[in-house]
Amino acid sequence: MIYTVTLNPALDYFMTYEEIESGAVNRTSQTQVSAGGKGIMESRMMSLLKADNTAWGFLGGFSGQYIKDFLTENKVHSDFTAIQDLTRINVKLQTLKDETSLDAAGPQLQEKEIQAFIDKFEVLKADDIVVFAGTIPKTLGEDFYQRLIQKVKEHQATFVMDVDGHKLLETLSDHPLLIKPNREELEGIFNVKFERNDQIIPYGKKLLEMGAQQVIVSMAGDGAYLFTPEKTYFAAGIKGELKNSIGAGDSTVAGFLAEYSKTKDAFQAFKQAIACGTAKAFSENMPTQSFLDEIYQKVNISEVD
Ligand SMILES: Nc1ncnc2c1ncn2[C@@H]1O[C@H](COP(=O)(O)OP(=O)(O)O)[C@@H](O)[C@H]1O
Ligand SMILES: O=P(O)(O)OC[C@H]1O[C@](O)(COP(=O)(O)O)[C@@H](O)[C@@H]1O
C-alpha cells in the first residue's frame, strides 16, 4: 500500500483573469475550486492510475469537509485525522501571462489531534511506501517529518520525500526511495545557477551520493532527468498547450510510484511519471485516462553518458 501524507492540505481556489492590475479591483472571468495539497494531488493521480493508495493528513472545517467529500466522490481512498481548526484556502491566480500562488500558513493543531495522526503509522508493513509531501503547519515543528520517518523505519517501510530545499537534505541519510526537486529547488539546495540543463547532472548524482535511492529533477516544459545508481536518463519536454501546471510535479511523483510499486522498474516508472506530469500541465483539472494514454505515446527518454 502507498500512503500519501499531506500535513497541510489546501482548498485551492483558482481565479482566472486576462491580466491583474495591482492596487485595483479585478473582476474574474472564471473560478474553480479543487482539493489540493501535494499528497492529495498525488493520491488523486495514483487513484486515476488505479494504484492502491490511502491519503493521510489533517482536515478541518468547511474547507476540510469539501476536500473529504471531493475525494470520496472521486473514489480516492482517504483516512484523514479530523481537526478543530480550518484547513487552509490557497488562492491560485491565472492570467494570460503567468500563474501566481497565494498560499496560506495552515491551521493550529492540538496535541491530541497530532497523537491520533501519529498512531496511524502503527498499521505500516514492510512493503508499504509513505510519501511525505508539502509544507508542515507551524504547530507541528520543523522536525516533524524526521519523527515520522523514524516511525516508517520502525516498521521497515520505505518513504518518498516531496518537500522543499533544505528539509529534503536532512532526510537523505535515511535513504528515501525517491526525491523530486525541480530545477529551481536544486539551485537553491546547492546555491548554484544553471545556465544549461545538462549542468544539472553532477548535482543529481550528488543527491544519490548523499543517500537518495532515486532522484528525479523536473524542469517544467524542458522535461526531467532521472538518476538511479546504475543509470541517468533524460526525458525530453513534450510540446503542447499549458493549461494549469499546479500539481504537475505532484503528478510526476504519483506516476513514478504507481508504476514502480508494481514493477520496481525505474525506467518504466519514469515514463509514467513524465506522462502524468505533462498530462496534468496540459489539463485544467486532472487529465482523463485517454489523454494520459495519448501523452504517454509521446514520452521520449534517452540514456545520458
Ligand atoms: N509547460 C510544460 N510543458 C510540458 N510539460 C510540463 C510543463 N510543465 C510541467 N510539465 C511536466 O511536469 C513535470 C513537473 O513539472 P515541474 O514544473 O518541473 O514540477 P513542480 O510542479 O514540482 O515545480 C515536468 O518534468 C514535465 O514533465
Ligand atoms: O504544501 P505546500 O508546499 O504549501 O503546497 C501546497 C500547494 O501545492 C499544491 O499541491 C500544488 O503543488 P505544486 O506547487 O507542486 O504544483 C497545491 O494544490 C497546494 O495549494
Automatic annotation (TrEMBL):
Residues 15-281 form the Carbohydrate kinase PfkB domain. GO terms for molecular function: 1-phosphofructokinase activity; ATP binding; tagatose-6-phosphate kinase activity. GO terms for biological process: carbohydrate catabolic process; lactose metabolic process; small molecule metabolic process. GO terms for cellular component: cytosol. Keywords: ATP-binding, Kinase, Lactose metabolism, Nucleotide-binding, Transferase. Pathway: Carbohydrate metabolism; D-tagatose 6-phosphate degradation; D-glyceraldehyde 3-phosphate and glycerone phosphate from D-tagatose 6-phosphate: step 1/2. InterPro entries: 1-PFruKinase, Carboh/pur_kinase_PfkB_CS, PfkB_dom, Ribokinase-like, Tagatose/fructose_Pkinase. Catalyzes the ATP-dependent phosphorylation of fructose-l-phosphate to fructose-l,6-bisphosphate. This is Tagatose-6-phosphate kinase. It comes from Lactococcus taiwanensis. The lineage of its organism: Bacteria, Bacillati, Bacillota, Bacilli, Lactobacillales.
